[in-house]
Amino acid sequence: MPTQRPGWGFGDGPAAPTGNAAPSKAARQRQSELDAEDRANLPVRVDDAFAGNPNASVSVGYDLTAGTVVRRNDEEAARWFYLAASQGHPDAFIQLGYRYSHGIGVPQNDETAAYWYRAGADHGDKGAMVALGLIYAAGRGVRQDWSAAVRWWQRAGDVGLAARFLGDAYACGLGGEQDNQRAVSAYRRSVETG
């Protein structure tokens, strides 16, 4: 068994939880009540979505993704997220970016994934900025451009993953000059912000 995880250097990580990790009877009962309430409210959310409420469209998309309120249907979920995206909802942009990046409910298409992540980033979604940085770093759907990746991670600010990726870029001189001081600073921000 390795003594270090590749690329992390933190040993074997935390020990597995012990004891009874299953939800309590009360927690299962409450979740069942919430699911029943969500099922009862689903027709209202669908009506609200068709009436132009992007929050309702996203909610229905999440219901279809989770499969707890209705049967899981990734293709139908993607359609609801698309409806919300056409109304400018930032959560829908990142959902569509992820779905096109991984081919979930839609054909896998890196260019389309980059388009939706960019739409989310342009609307200020920090998660989309991090994802777009990764898209540029990997050259998936766009020309590989480490400088663009670094700019998107910088725009994401002190989001834990963005700071971590910035640290890697600064440490390796990707997208600019190697700068170990900036790398250490970015890694510290990553740890502080989770």
Outline:
The protein is mainly alpha-helical.
3D structure, described in words:
The chain folds into two domains: 31-87, no CATH class; 93-194, Tetratricopeptide repeat domain (Serine Threonine Protein Phosphatase 5, Tetratricopeptide repeat, Alpha Horseshoe). It has helices spanning 25-50, 54-66, 74-86, 90-102, 110-122, 126-138, 146-156, 160-172, 180-193. The model is unreliable at 1-20 (pLDDT under 50). By secondary structure, the protein is mostly helical. Helix 8 (160-172) packs antiparallel against helix 9 (180-193). It is built from nine helices and no strands. The two termini are 27 Å apart.
Shape: globular
| CATH superfamily placement of the largest domain | Tetratricopeptide repeat domain
List the secondary-structure elements in sequence, H or E.
Answer: HHHHHHHHH
Instruction: List the domain count as a whole number.
Output: 2
User: What's the average pLDDT?
Assistant: 84
Instruction: Indicate the CATH topology of the largest domain.
Output: Serine Threonine Protein Phosphatase 5, Tetratricopeptide repeat
